Amino acid sequence: MVVAWVFVGLVVGALVAAATMMKKSQALREQVSAAEARARVGEALHQAAVESLERERADHVEAVANMEALFEATSSRVLANSMTQFNETQERILRERDSKLKDSLGPLEELLAQYKSSLEGFDKNHREALFDVKTRAGELLAAQLKTQEETSRLNQLLGRSADRGRWGEIQLANVMEASGLRANIDFDLQVTQSGEAGQRQRPDCIVKLPNNTTIVIDAKFPFANFEKALASESPSERRLYEEKSASDLREHVKVLATKSYWQALDFSPEFTVCFVPSDAALAAAYEADANLHTYATEKRVLLVGPTNLLALLWSAAEVLQRHAFASNAQEILRAATELYGRIRVVAGPLAKLGKSLNDSVSSYNEAIASVESRLIPIARRVRQLDGATGAKPIDDLKEITSSAKKLDAPKWGADLGDPELALQSEIIELEAYEEDGDEEVEGWGARAE
Questions:
Q1: Angle between the 161-179 and 306-370 helix axes, to the nearest 10 degrees?
Q2: pLDDT tens digit string along 310-360?
Q3: Secondary structure of 87-139 in the HEC alphabet?
Q4: Rounded to an integer, what distance in angstroms lies between the CA atom of residue 149 and that of residue 247?
Q5: Helix axes 2-157, 161-179, angle to 10 degrees
Q6: 300 with 340, same domain?
Q7: Among 304, 338, 353, which residue terminates a domain?
Q8: Run of H or E including 47
Q9: How do strand 272-275 and strand 213-218 relate by DSSP bridges?
Q10: How far apart are CA 131 and CA 113, in angstroms?
């Protein structure tokens, strides 16, 4: 029984379970159906969404394409406008820059043009200068060759004492010419004179100064040892010959001192100028003999080279020029004094001429008064007659109211009442009359011829 009940319970439980299961299955089927329906709806929605997405994607692609096309067109237009503006701006900037650059470069161009012109001129001058330099170089070379020839010939000539003396005379003549003094006027060369004891002397040059003052110049120089000193290559040998040259010059000074050229000349200072034709020779002599200058001064001999002699002669030329100016000034003063005296003498005739002019004016005024009071009234009455109506009227006669200016005798330094001045005036008038008479006679003679 129990088993039955158990069985019944199992059956009932199975039925209940089956019923429950059926309900759950039904619910599941419904859920599945609902899920399938939802799935179909979701699929449809998904499909719709996919289609919508595809459409949106296509629209997006189209929009993007349109936007790209629009952007490209806009970009091209903007770029074109920008480029146009940029080009215009750049062109304007370039024009402004060119204008400013031209303004800035204008002076530079002018300077460049001037520089080019100057460069061309410099190049031309350079070529001319180069040509001139070449010409001068050729001339210098020719002169050098000629100098070498002259030096060689001079060395040959200076081997003899007479020729050495001649060289000194030539150098002296050159210095005299450079001094500005006039030959045979301001100085004489190779003048022969007699010494104090009657011996014959011939100084090389005598310079003439104002007041009959003269300066004697001797141009003889012992050249032999100095020439050997120049030709020496050894310093000790050169020194030896320089000392010998100084000794020769000292001996020459001694000889000049015995000649006493100034004693044969009036107003000549008691010294003789010894001209050494070379400053180098004189300097070498002073270096070799330190007491040579003192010795020559004590012997009343002045040792000079070309430079010192030229300075001395320039001083002499200045003295002569100032003396000439002073002489001219004295002549001008004498002429001015004579002119003043003549002007003073002329004052008398001028005073007489003024008095004569005033007398003539007075006579003229009296004649005018007489004519106006006696003749003109009658002449005017005659003109008023019928037969003289065509006659021209008589002009009014005017008196002369001005008179000759009175001579201011004190200004002329003359006394018009001085008999001597009157006599001198009469002499001047007589001389003028005689000159006029001579001219008339000459004129008559010329007409007679």
A1: 30
A2: 888 888 888 888 877 777 777 777 776 776 666 666 666 666 766 776 777
A3: HHHHHHHHHHHHHHHHHHHHHHHHHHHHHHHHHHHHHHHHHHHHHHHHHHHHH
A4: 31
A5: 120
A6: no
A7: 304
A8: helix 2-157
A9: parallel
A10: 26
